[in-house]
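anyone seen this seq b4? input:
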Amino acid sequence: MSISSHQRSESYSKVHIDSQNEIKYVEIDFSVQISVLQRLGFSFNVDWENRLQKEVLNDYRLNKSCSIKDEPIFKPSFSTGYLSIFWTNECGLEESEIVFNLFFDKDSSHTHISTFLIDNEAVPEKIYTSSDRVWNESSKKIEISSKFNSFFDYLLLGFNHILSGFDHLAFLIALLILKVQLKRLILIVTGFTIGHSITLVLGALGLLTPSSQLVEALIGYSIVIIALECAGKITSNHLLYSRYLAYISLLFLVIFSFLGYQKFLVGLIGITLFSYCYLHLSSRYSNLYFTIIITSLFGLIHGFGFAGNLSSLGLMEGRLIPAILGFNLGVELGQLLVILIFSIIFYQIGNFFKTHLDTLRIVTASGLSCLGIFWFVERLI
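predicted toks r here
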């Protein structure tokens, strides 16, 4: 079983339909993160670009009357973490229908979000899922209820975003083993959602455009920090953990410099200083407000995972706000459900391991730290 990323298996496209005389032109700009392809098991060996392009064109199906006009344009960008394929179809004047079958055979939870511009008129986007793979032009007639549909579509997307991302589940488990009261834990998780919402809005509006590769790596790193904080509280030895973390970070800086990953050096130096200071502060300030502030900062990082995608899609006016609200509410509901379930599980485990509970917490924190470091390194290289 593969270890899924916080950012779910998702892809995106922008579709422009333009009717001219007896021909309808359908332009498609398809994009997907390279990390998503890696998690889906795609092999980047010889001739991988042609194989991927063929797979996309075969599973992005239009009307039978349609044919590809020119050679598709393939644009990989390892610096941004995305690749895109652009092509134009010539079709008859019948109602357009688009069937999306890509990636569902590899991951049934895959989601594809497509926006549409028909004769220069924006219409509601389509969220393709394994059980809903067809869009037709008559869908533009649902304008009256489109905002409500958008809200509930993205609420479900946000809810699934949490439940299907192992690294977000690991982050929530790391918060749970801090052993704070359930009411306080809910407030902490809500602080995380607030931070998540802020960057989601800023990113979706195009005001901030972070590196998706670095953001995904930092999501793994946030798990490490919370897990080490838990171990530090149990052993009352925050200083030791902060030193080890500083040494490991220094080692990473040397290795990444040697391998030629200089573009992330400033970010790595920044998170090293933040981590060292954070572990020192957490040993002195254990009040609720400090924890909420820190988890809100981590929420800021996690929120960028989906924000850039909304920004690049360019949702029609009036649907961006419902999409953001729905997505974040779905994230919050998913987190609360996870917290409730794991709180019950941990309570039962605590009753069984009463005399060795702290040892079990340290073992769990160690495992989460290793997992977080794995995600951090894997997503940077």
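Strands lie at 10-20, 23-33, 60-61, 67-68, 73-77, 82-91, 97-100, 111-118, 121-128, 134-136. Residues 10-143 form one domain. kinda curious what u guys think
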